[in-house]
Amino acid sequence: MLAMDTLDLRAVFAAEKVVDMITHEQNEYLSRTGPGTPMGELFRRYWIPALMAEELPRPNCPPVQVQLLGERLIAFRDTQGRLGLMDEFCAHRGVSLWFGRNEENGIRCPYHGWKYDVTGQCVEVPSEPASSGFCQKIKLQAYPCAEIGGVIWAYMGPAAEKPPLPAYEWVHLEPSQRFLTKRWQESNYLQGMEGGIDSSHVSFLHRGDLNSDPLHRNTAGAKYARSTNTVFDILESRGGLLIGARRDADPGFHYWRITQWLMPWYTLIPPYKGQAANGHAWVPMDDHNCMAWTMTFHPTRDLSNEEVELMRKGAGVHAELIPGTFQPVANRGNRYLMDREAQETGKFYSGVRGLAIQDASVQESMGAIADRTKENLVATDNAIIMARLRLRKAAQAVTAGEHAPGVDEEAQNVRSASFVLPVDGKFKDAALDAVKVRKGEQHVAV
After folding, report:
1. How far is CA 11 from CA 182, 231, 239, in A?
2. Per the confidence metrics, is the pTM higher than 0.90?
């Protein structure tokens, strides 16, 4: 397959023996991300969004529990401001270090006083004489961290494979130009990620909000996106897939929505004119839960106070959260505040309010891990089929000792886009130009 070229899906399927349904074994391969699994080893080759920087706001602040790729970890910021991310449990008797005291450049277990620095090294065992050297023999698994773009990132893979720091456009903007949230989703990461690259569902699941959401309504793109006549054109990129979804626009024209899928779990959502751009990261906590990160950013201006306040309340692609948690107010436990009257009248097409929770409701309804052996895929699912293929091939390459794809600036520093073309316009040329990051210029949108 050629980089940044239109994919001949039939040829790919024939060469790779890909069909529109996957086996139980293939589903397990893609869904399992714990230590030692092929996908888990692939994901450990990337910088992983672990925490929002504000979760560790100052030196010696309380530690925070973190779950990533099936590992239970503890994060803290020491007296000097250094970041630590390591095994949650004390090596002595297995007590959770969430109960620990963050003091004097280390976190101390409250049970017997064993203390660890940010590298996981045990630096003090009060019951043992320092001269014994016992504590030097004790070290918890720890991972390097970096703070950039309002996020604390973790690298959990081999030191020799550690990639450059993330180069996504939003990471390098001023804090006033971006707004970040994350929410706990009760499903495998793959369901969320596949929803992010499935542009065809916008016409149904989100059609009510395209009229009403204050961050999308009254744009030409929101009007055209309601069309259910969707045709896909997919380009393979250095770091993933460039997914073009074509809909009818005004007579003689097509409306194109360009979604970027970037390895291993990022999606950049097609923007609407005059609005900020958005993206998601679907980060596995374990095989049954993921943290859905949402990034809203504008390359040329600050986000307004009104925009930020709306997003805090669940507007756009964000979700309103229960204070002090990352759980959405509308969640599985309360049936996503389903409103059957609103569904019947068409106020909210699905009966669920808000773009993010509409996605969460249908994705979580599939079960903790969707049974993809029962799927019946169609042409609008080609991007999902291709993403699954790329993930498997990347994991196989890492297993064979090769480097993970999409870790460099060229792969990551791209945009999503939306535009209108004449029906005989050249999609590929327009798409490759529209997704370029031009510093100081707005993204291409209608």
Report:
1. 39, 19, 21
2. yes
